[in-house]
Amino acid sequence: MTQLSTFEIHSKRRLKKRRPLIYLTVLGLTFLAALLRFPWLDRLPPGLYHDEAYNGLDALAINEGRRAIFFEANNGREPLHIYLMSITVRFFGRTPVGVRAAAAFLGVLLIPLIFLLGKEMFDERVGLWAALMAVSNIWLLCLSRTGFRAGSLTVVSAAGLAALWRGRNTGQRRWFALAGALLGLTQYTYTAARFVPVALVLGLLLTWRHWRGLGRHLFLLAICILLVDLPLAIYALAHLDLFLARPRQLLILDPRLHQGQLLKVLAEQAIAHAKAVFLEGDSLPRHNVPGKPMLAPLTALLCVIGLVKGATSRISPRLSFASSWIVIMFLPSYLAWGGNSFLRLSGLPPILLLLPALGADWLWRQLLKWKGATASLLLLAATAATGVHNVMTYYLYYAQSQSAFYSYEVPSTEIASYINCFLEHGYVRDDLPLLPAPSGLPRSVCVARDLLHFSETVVFLLQPDPRVHRLAQAPPAAKDEERMLMVVPGSSTSYLQLLPPRRQIQVYLGSKMRDQQRAGPVFQPHTVFVATRPPDLDPVARFEDGISLLDYRLARPDPETLAVRLRWQADRNPEGYYILFVHLLQGGTLISQHDGPPAHDYYPTTHWREGDVVVDVHRLTIPAGFDIARGMLRVGVYRPENLVRLQCILADGSTQDSVLLPVSDGW
């Protein structure tokens, strides 16, 4: 007996003794995965993409009694994930958390399933390494924190393969029956699952000798797959055009896509998908931290080691099964237009992560045998450090990424949030500007039709309410009413007549976005006017043309910025178009200033009506060493055509061209 085989025998004995510790470790990894997947689902990823909202709308329909085996909207979608989502939407409501919690749950469930798959295909150590790598894999983090269906394919295929290999190892038919049910269920998860039967058949054929004597069991496997898939197959045959609509749109074999350059396109696809594993992955922020490969550098190195060592050992039949599965499950993305797509590759992770796990297990054993426990622990520390780096990349870099902000259509969530907040029910973003508190007066909202149907995200998040009206159908404002107007910037200002008279009016600018599909320009889709009960205040200063300054408030959103909120009142309808200015002084010296029309020019003085109170905010840069106690604000109004300031009438009857206000009194 060789020294290596003796080492393996002792290693297996130690493994058996440590099995309770292994399962406790898997439990700990599962808990850690939950900590990385469930928190802040409403803000990371930012916003809510309209494909997620489509699923959420169908989940609402399920909760209202609708049942479907295939959801036809949005190019057709498989139902399993949407049925799971109906449970979380019922619990969390019409919120991003309601849409994404199902994926987070599946992402947590994947950790023990990957362990079981690795255990049954190889051994407990390989399963443990695979589970450790899955916890913080960026690709899997992205899959488990979005409301897309692709993550359900990852989990169900992992469970099915684990059951299949459990059946192979025990010879028990019940595991083959369970594997058939689960692998059949993959067809109800995501479009890429249509390649699962091909991958399964090819894997079994390449390792046929490994399944010798299990023919009846495999027949049972096939029967269970067919029985589970029969209802969907019947539907597909009756609705073939719909069932194949999305694949037909993207298949690169279509001459309309490759335009006579099929070989070139196939070569480019091959290069892109080869790079996706080790070098450069999906660039779309909805699927991935842009450009990050499937495997981090250390994990990629371990993957190569696992392939080399596995191919020359007794586990090569199992490695052949894994390799064939990987090759086939690359095809949904390889044959689709647009480069590597991590959603279409969602059938890969359970098997793909076994390869670096094999490499890690082999390297661990060699280090333990040659260099002792300290050296082997360094490998574990390096793997853990890779995981920490992945988590920091996702939560720090990706969370602040402008491309992710645009890609997840954040303004859609803002449109719904403003309305829900004003009417005091439904989902509201936690970073939404503070709206005026309710005063007891009735409230209503008037919204441009294009914004009400801006995306499915608005439709899903917006809490149904009869007080929400389209602009074109809105009733006149009542005198005792508070109202919100939401309009498309640049549209006619005739909507301003819908604002109730003698109200405090504040304008909020929506976040900007970009059409990611067409690489269009950045634009602002919505502007919000809020008209509420005005405060009962005596003016601080009165200017010409019936303009009074009621009060001012200061805030420091960051150490370098001073936000000055002014409240103006129209004692009559002003005749001119004016610019408001705020100067920051210290010791009589001007150190910062901001000039501009009121309310970002969305409610200029030419639109002010008698009794209007208009809120206007100016942001000033604060230099280092600014002394609040010595600071003063100079506030005034001027005509832009000649820069002549309006006179300010003081309490003693004297006039000046501005009013001085202590900074210290504005907090």
Main pleated sheet:
11 strands, mixed
The gyration radius over C-alpha positions equals: 31 Å
User: Could you estimate the helical fraction of the residues in percent?
Assistant: 40-55%
Shape: elongated
Whole-Å distance between the termini? Answer: 83 Å
Quick check: average pLDDT? Answer: 92
Number of helices: 24
Q: Find the count of extended strands (DSSP E, 2+ residues).
A: 17
Main sheet: strand order: 2-1-3-7-4-13-10-9-8-15-16
The helix-and-strand class reads: alpha+beta
Strand composition percent: 5-15%
Catalogue the unreliable spans: 1-5
Please describe what this structure looks like.
- Mean pLDDT is 92; it is low at 1-5.
- The strands form three sheets. Strands 2-1-3-7-4-13-10-9-8-15-16 form an eleven-stranded mixed sheet. The chain has a four-stranded antiparallel sheet with strand order 12-11-14-17, with no helix packed on it. It has a two-stranded antiparallel ribbon with strand order 5-6.
- The chain has 667 residues and is an alpha+beta fold.
- Helix content is 47%, strand content 14%.
- The N and C termini lie far apart (83 Å).
- It is built from 24 helices and 17 strands.
- The longest helix has 26 residues, at 96-121.
Fold blueprint:
Elements: H1 3-17, H2 19-37, H3 50-63, H4 80-92, H5 96-121, H6 124-135, H7 138-143, H8 150-170, H9 173-185, H10 196-206, H11 215-238, H12 240-243, H13 245-250, H14 255-258, H15 262-278, H16 297-311, H17 316-334, H18 349-352, H19 354-370, H20 373-397, H21 402-407, H22 410-423, E1 443-447, H23 449-452, H24 456-461, E2 468-470, E3 482-487, E4 504-509, E5 513-514, E6 522-523, E7 527-532, E8 541-543, E9 547-558, E10 561-570, E11 579-586, E12 589-596, E13 613-621, E14 631-638, E15 648-649, E16 655-656, E17 659-662
Parallel strand pairs: 1-2, 1-3, 4-13
Antiparallel strand pairs: 3-7, 4-7, 5-6, 8-9, 8-15, 9-10, 10-13, 11-12, 11-14, 14-17, 15-16
